[in-house]
Amino acid sequence: MRRRRSSWRRPALAAIAAAACVGLLSAGLLPAWLTGLGPPSSELPVVERTALGLYLLVNRGLLVHQGEPPFRLAAIDIEPGMDAGAVAAELQRLGVLEAPGLFRRYLRYRGLDTTVEAGRYQVSSGMSIVELAEMLQQARDSRYTITIPEGWRREEIAEALGDLGLSFTPADFLAATRRPPPAWAGAPPSAKDLEGFLFPDTYQLGPEMSASDVAQLMLQTFEARVGESLRAGFAAQNLTTFQAVTLASIVEREAVVAAERPLIASVFLNRLDLGVPLQADPTVQYALGRSASGWWKAPLTAADLGIDSPYNTYRHTGLPPGPIANPGLAALESVADPTPTGYLFFRAACDGSGAHRFATTFEDHLQNACP
């Protein structure tokens, strides 16, 4: 017979662990190696630092949680002398911050509440509290800070830039990006714009910058981030950089769960190898353009899937003529290094998680349908 463990052990161990946490927090050590949220302010009294540290540790998941798409985008003007409470309240009013109290305490713990830079920022509900806090320290000498999310098309970027109140219009930006990709991309002569090469990132923009300046900055960022090793990965998949960016843009729009990007890339690469149509909804959404529901119409109808467009991958085999959006680094990496599979199909899981079910045969694909 197994000896029964004493009932006092668990609470005793929990008390010891809690005491250890308090001791480490008091020393300012715990956040650096456990929470990963950055060091506490040296100006905080030990008692306050300990209390805030424990509070943030308990709420760590909320601190790093990113909102779910579709993302709400908004511009916030932070005036000189604006305190953290007012900033939090405005972010909540704009619909991009759900926990203003947690936001204020995180700023206080890190000592960031006194270093928020005045300026105009483009913020998104897809940003975590940690990301928002860091962004608001970065205005420096620039009046305009904007974050371009992964998976946006050129028109969406143009509209967001227009909301900043810069010296150029969305139409100016579209005109500035209506030029072929650089020669190193290996684009065909039919490629007429920089779709796919406007790298998603956080940018500091000066009021004197033109639409061409901003376009060039995004293109230079792409070139800096997509280096030789990544391009070698594209070549290993028998893709030019332009083709890889085109495929990555589809992967970016299809993937909801980040870990699935290499699997989705594998499905499309397998289909390309077999000459099977990609049948990717985002390519049809791109062809449809703006609808009453925005730039990415959902759900699609049978008539939508029959649209006569070279971007309709239900009607045409191979890749579409060019990228349908601007993919982020993870989507590009998934194309350069996909998960080796025999999958040819995927469809959304039935649990609302955004995950997909993958299949090798059409029969298995049918079995994966929701009841």
Would you give an account of this structure?
This protein is of the alpha+beta class and 371 residues long. The chain has a domain at 239-367. It is built from 17 helices and six strands. α7 (129-135) links the parallel β2 (119-124) and β3. The longest helix has 18 residues, at 9-26. Mean pLDDT is 87; it is low at 1-18.
Number of H- or I-type helical stretches: 17
Using DSSP, what is the number of strands? 6
Distance between the termini: 47 Å
Envelope shape: globular
As a percent range, the share of helical residues equals 40-55%
Please describe the biggest sheet, giving its number of strands, its sense, and whether it closes into a barrel: 4 strands, mixed
Strand order across the largest sheet: 1-2-3-4
Question: Uncertain runs with pLDDT below 50, 5 residues or more?
Answer: 1-18
Strand portion, in percent?
A: 5-15%
Structural class: alpha+beta
- Rounded to the nearest angstrom, the radius of gyration is 24 Å
Q: Can you give the mean pLDDT?
A: 87
Please describe the topology of this protein:
Layout (H helix, E strand, L loop, with lengths): L8 H18 L3 H6 L10 H13 L1 H5 L8 E6 L5 H10 L6 H11 L8 E6 L4 H7 L8 E4 L6 H10 L6 H7 L25 E4 L5 H15 L2 H9 L4 H14 L6 H14 L6 H8 L13 H4 L23 H8 L8 E4 L7 E4 L2 H6 L4
Parallel strand pairs: 2-3
Antiparallel strand pairs: 1-2, 3-4, 5-6
Short description:
44% of the residues lie in helices and 8% in strands. By secondary structure, it is an alpha+beta fold.
